[in-house]
Amino acid sequence: MKLGLSAMALATFLGLSLAAPAQQQPAIPDNPAPQAPPPLSNVNGPITPGKGAGDTLPGPSSSAASAGQQPAPTTPSSSQPPAQEGKDQVQTAPPEIPEGGEGFEKTSTLIRLNVNFVEVPVTVKDSKGVLVPGLTYRNFKIFENGQRQPLRLFTADAFPLSMAFVIDQSVTADVMAKVNNSLAAIQGALAPYDEIAVFSYSNGAQNRSGGFTGAQSARVPYVLSMTKETGSEMLPPVNSGPLAGCNIRENGNCVDPNLQPGRSVGGGPFMTIPKEIHTLNDAILAAAKELSTRPKGRRRIIYVVSDGKEYGSKATYRDVLRYLETNDITVYGTLVGDSARWGEGYISRLHLPFTMYDNRLASYTLATGGTLDSERDLNGMERSYSRIAEEARTRYTLGYLSHQPVIDGKFRPIDVRVDRPGLEVIAKTGYYPNARDAQ
């Protein structure tokens, strides 16, 4: 009895509870303290979490602020490496470079959102006029409105051609005979995946083919054969004397009413000589309207065989050039006749006021990024067809996203440069934005 009381007294003295183990209360752990989320240091895209599409990318200062820490001082430190001189600060990442044979597909399938994707074909030649291959995107710099644009697409693939072939039928008879004999060579310069439409002009433009057709189809030789004409006879005009007026009559009437006094040549003792008609502007505009319907991803080119003279067109040069620059159309040409003569071809580019333009074709090629050959014989014309078709197909293609508003109707000048000396760069001088290119 004394032993039992002593045990109970000892337990009471030590503060021990004799309760059952099932009735003991477990200890409650402390709640964890709130901790800041880790900084998003791996986010390098144009959209900053929590800020949307801002102007600056998240850097060390923004990461430290999100973690509740004080940002580091922005003063330069001697321990930081200096900026590398000569490093390209605009082209920070390489553009999209498609695989071989996929370049023309990328230009039509590239996803764009409320921007203008500008496609600039570029031809590079050396001092001898030979095409320069093997250039990369690092060799090119492109400027729009004086501001450099980073490239988003670069390819050197060959593109299929949509060619509007325009034939001048107002040239003299001897030149027209050479042009007629050279027409069969244009089909040999084209590939099976190309397409062609044939136009002609003298006093007004005519669509000979009725639309585009396969370049190697049997219809093309037939259309070209039906386009042959005799040309014009450049005889010395007679406006005075007994042979003036209408010297060939039938039943008392003039055979040619254009030469009959009192009609278009006027009356009186002197005859007004009819003016020459060369509707080059109207022909290029008709071909450009047909080309504007061709799908993206094809080279839209107008190939003109002419002496370059322009007089009597309803369309003006400025309106036609704006239409070409809006629809991404390039004009190439082969000069024939007097404009192809050495020395005279350059002088004919000068224009006196109130006179006929002796070589308006050169202005179209320079503004749209095309080239112009001068050939006087049959073999030269045939070689020119093959050379220009190859040049139009195998150009470097540069693509960038314009920093200008989507549609503002203003002309945007373009300047393309290559970082190698002694090379000639041929590209269009600018463009007008097109609503169909903005997506």
Characterise this structure:
The chain is α+β, with helices and mostly antiparallel strands. Among the domains are: 103-157 and 398-437; 161-232 and 282-392, Rossmann fold (3-Layer(aba) Sandwich). 23% of the residues lie in helices and 18% in strands. It has eleven helices and 17 strands. It has helices at residues 2-14, 60-66, 103-109, 173-182, 185-188, 219-226, 280-291, 317-326, 344-347, 361-368, 378-393, and strands at residues 117-125, 140-144, 147-148, 153-155, 161-168, 195-201, 205-207, 213-214, 249-250, 253-254, 299-306, 330-335, 372-374, 396-401, 412-418, 424-426, 430-431. Strands 5, 6, 7, 8, 11, 12 and 13 form a seven-stranded mixed sheet that branches. A four-stranded antiparallel sheet has the order 4-14-1-16, covered by helices on one side. A four-stranded antiparallel sheet has the order 3-2-15-17. A hairpin with a 3-residue loop joins strand 6 and strand 7. Helix 7 (280-291) packs parallel to helix 8. The longest helix has 16 residues, at 378-393. It is elongated, with a radius of gyration of 38 Å.
